[in-house]
Amino acid sequence: MNFRHYIFCGLVIVSVLLSANAQNDDPVRVDSAIVRVNVGVVDQRGRPITTLDRSTFSIFEDGVPQEISRFDATTAPFSVVMMLDMSGSTRSFRQNIQLSAARFLDALAPDDRVAVIEFHDKVSLLNDFTSNRMTASHSISVAGGSGGTNLYKALQFALQKLGGEGNRRKAIVVLTDGVDTDLQNDDRKRLSGLDDSRIPGAIKAESSEMLNRILNRADSQGVTIYPLALPTGDPARLADPTPRQIAMYKAARERLHLVADRSGGTLNAINRLDQMATLYAQVAADLRTLYTIEYQPSNEKRDGKWRQIKVAVNDPDLISRSRQGYFAR
Question: pTM for the full model?
Fold first, then answer.
């Protein structure tokens, strides 16, 4: 084997290693030409309807009918990421969190797969996706931490993990007060130097670059996100707050609303800690009422513009709920 052959082999090995590292940094490859929508249907009294078939649904993008390429009934399994806020603000009620989150596991279907992530100063995967409830339950029982709140980094990580779950239906359930440390620091800088009269409305919650990256990624993967908002993040519960504190906490709660609304989920506000288990169970029940529709948009332009989605059912007495659209990127 001559010297040039050694060099060639070395270059091939380096190339392979670099390629592997790049894939580890961002393993998600989403076909942006496919749009996935999770849809809930209720009757006039708000009762979920779970026995519909593909022929019941029509889907429109910017008013134009689209051809449904895939349909999953409500019985199809989900891959769910449970995200637990273990920052310092939750230290006094960790037992409530553990008991309530365990109730969520009990309400899932047997074939659902669950990953558990904790976030505080760090973001940690406590267990990868599994249908073994004992594994997930153990992860919940050992979750802990302190310090700041890396909420949006944790959401980004959760979406990355869901990207490896293929064509399974996908959801995130995140328990948090919503007060992300990095974004709150950005908000504080934005307000610095302003007098009190200019503070209300100075923070535009929807303008966060990090938030919009997460929303766009959730769009492309068809992930429905359910925030469970802890009372520690409620601006109305602040003790003798300054105008700046009120503005920052309102922006944090507005961002949670945006995450839920854009992804087709719901924001569940926890007003009392004894409500937590009930709300977890309600989210699990809601997942079991969702249909999933996929389509390839007839408008193939990836121009970054907003595309409105409307899902219709052929029974006028039924009401559908889904995310309202996406940006075509």
Answer: 0.88
